[in-house]
Please model this.
Amino acid sequence: MKKNLLKSKLKQIFLKHKLSNKHAELCSNYLIKAEILEAKGHGLARLKMYCDRIKAKVINPNPEIKIKKISSSISYINADNSIGFVSADIGIKQAIKNAKKTGIGLVAIKKSGHYGLSSFYAEQAVNNRLMVFCFTNAPAALAPHGAKKSLFGTNPICFGVPTGKVPFIYDASTSMINRGTIRRADKLGLKIPYGVALNTKGKITTNAKEALKGTQLPIAGFKGSGLAWMVDILSGVFTGSSHGGKTKDPFDDFSGPQNMGHLFITINPKIFIGDRFVKEMQKNIKLVKKLPKAKGFSNILYPGERKNKTYKKNLNKDISIPKKILREMEILNAK
Model:
């Protein structure tokens, strides 16, 4: 489907679900961008979920988002159970504003929901020549090291920094694959890779439905579990949001809002070494790229390069939409 047509349809759907024109536009843009980046687990496969939650009144389509100034550098946002795209977009813009004023911005967000890819927000900061960290918690999907029951989310860690060229943006979940990929596989009847999830009996499964009922595996064993715990503290405990497995699953639990937390940290990279920063970053990247290549590698990419190439490759292409999701869109647009 042509992107202009898709955007029009998505915006119409969000408007029918009582979002403002501005918020409908923002949410549509983010879903389309996820598709362009081939992060399909965060794209159109989630549209019905957002709409169902609005209809169930556990996402507020017209929130009164309040920004509390703690200091010139620090802000605390009550998202009023908004759709995550909206609150996170406001949050990162506030963090950018704070960092430009004082050199560092710290923004905590509570009473929010799923906000898509962390790189969406990191990119905004990097485009403003800032260094950035983005954290968000998520519903229980990972078992802590030594436990057999899921408690932590797939809690992503995202870091971005300007390079003067393609932004360096590392955005990765603390699970072997993100949960959105498994959700999409379940929706479309696809298998998931071997070795990324266990079923309820603790055995490795490639069945998406079994994986959703079981538990996902963290990256690097106990190290990944520790990182997921760290993000749960930063974006859950620290922000006054749900944590410790209390974040509601957006697809399965409509008993109330998710109350997810996000934390953005923005830093002016010039505060210590001034204009030398970008030059030193470029030198750092060159040193890595000049290293002898391992077998099967013709180039060493830094985080963000592959995603940038994917974006450029797909930017002018039509977006392929599975029939099941097209049907969902038709139904949502008819309501």
